[in-house]
């Protein structure tokens, strides 16, 4: 009970410290902008809008450019709402390692924002590469990183051919964007699975491994043994 109390106290202190630093940054920005709160529209409010439907590495620009107007706001709500479903379950599952929880949540928030850039992907990869020696046993991080860098290079080529040279198709850029997005999401999901597996007790991991299915040994058909048993 005391261990659980100290763990919750530590997480609560970390959460309080995060909100305190965030509040201080808002106050400093408020004074730096001549006591004007207009900066909140560009830093906080704008993240929940899909304003710039320009080609980027996220799925927003392509999907919402093809979306029917009748379903636009419902999908807009869905795309933004699903991110808020992750913090609470992951908090209880990764409560023993608050820094890892914070790292995973930053990566998820960077990945699922409307206007994702190369800097966001690089920053999330740097966060997840901190435990590279451990996660290398779970996911082929180096191979995926090479594929990711290759498709990042091709993405800018296809964007240039599509928008400036007018010799390409939007689907070429979408293919590279889809590969980059899926690889980044796969690395994040695999990292979460690795951290959860590390924190799972050994007894719980071994629950499904102790079941032994006994098979009856089939007797070979032997005519001599059958005759002995019959006339014995």
UniProtKB/TrEMBL annotation:
Q: Can you supply one Gene Ontology CC term for this chain's record?
A: GPI-anchor transamidase complex
The entry's keywords: Endoplasmic reticulum, GPI-anchor biosynthesis, Membrane, Transmembrane, Transmembrane helix
Q: InterPro entries, per this entry?
A: PIG-U (IPR009600)
Regions that span the bilayer:
12-32, 71-92, 104-129, 141-163, 175-196
What compartments host this protein? Answer: Endoplasmic reticulum membrane
How the protein sits in the membrane?
A: Multi-pass membrane protein
To which pathway does this protein belong? Glycolipid biosynthesis; glycosylphosphatidylinositol-anchor biosynthesis
Q: Which family does it belong to?
A: Belongs to the PIGU family.
What is the designated name of this protein?
A: GPI transamidase subunit PIG-U, putative
Which organism does this sequence originate in? Plasmodium ovale wallikeri
């Amino acid at each position: 009970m005391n261990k659980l109390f100290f763990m919750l106290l530590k997480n609560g202190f970390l959460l309080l410290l995060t909100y305190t630093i965030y509040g201080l940054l808002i106050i400093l920005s408020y004074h730096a902008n001549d006591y004007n709160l207009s900066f909140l529209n560009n830093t906080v409010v704008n993240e929940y809008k899909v304003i710039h439907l320009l080609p980027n590495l996220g799925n927003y620009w392509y999907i919402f450019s093809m979306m029917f107007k009748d379903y636009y706001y419902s999908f807009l709500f869905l795309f933004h709402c699903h991110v808020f479903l992750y913090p609470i379950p992951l908090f209880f599952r990764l409560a023993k390692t608050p820094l890892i929880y914070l790292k995973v949540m930053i990566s998820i928030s960077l990945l699922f924002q409307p206007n994702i850039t190369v800097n966001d992907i690089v920053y999330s990869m740097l966060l997840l590469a901190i435990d590279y020696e451990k996660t290398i046993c779970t996911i082929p991080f180096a191979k995926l990183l090479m594929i990711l860098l290759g498709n990042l290079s091709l993405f800018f080529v296809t964007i240039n051919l599509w928008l400036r040279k007018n010799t390409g198709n939007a689907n070429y850029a979408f293919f590279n964007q889809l590969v980059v997005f899926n690889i980044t999401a796969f690395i994040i999901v695999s990292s979460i699975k690795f951290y959860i597996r590390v924190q799972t007790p050994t007894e719980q991991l071994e629950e499904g491994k102790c079941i032994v299915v006994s098979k009856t040994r089939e007797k070979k058909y032997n005519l001599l043994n059958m005759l002995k048993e019959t006339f014995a």
